[in-house]
């Protein structure tokens, strides 16, 4: 079990989660001005971007070894990926909720929501692009949203879920829907190729 935890990069994911949570608590509510391609220029909250850190490290652990070896050993790779992602997303939400209850502002909730969505995007793109490219594409999501996701008046477009405030039910639903679709994609395609 210890070997499996190390092989799937649990220490790195834990460090990334703690680091992102610390950044969301300390500077997460700071805004970065973003030029827009359409609509009006808006603000990008730091917590919306630091959510990439735990997302990338959680996904880094997915099939770090050769998936063909797992199948040769008759191990269910899809079930392990789903379990791995579910545990980490739950831990990110638990830590963020605890920090918020202890007085941290809503940036920690945005960080947890966006981590959930970024992981979902990568898992959804994984069968088409491979895991590494899917992680890179998910890292581009906040940049695309920041550049094209603002309406006149500085309000985020409905589809630009990473830009919405922490109390946005629509953004929360979108993030969890992306995660659910990504996990379904993993289950429907259990045989993986490396990459």
From TrEMBL:
Keywords on this record? Answer: Membrane, Transmembrane, Transmembrane helix
Superkingdom of the organism of origin: Bacteria
Bilayer-crossing regions: 12-29, 41-61, 81-102, 123-149, 169-188
**What is the protein name given in its UniProt record?**
Uncharacterized protein
* Organism for this UniProt entry: Streptomyces alkaliterrae
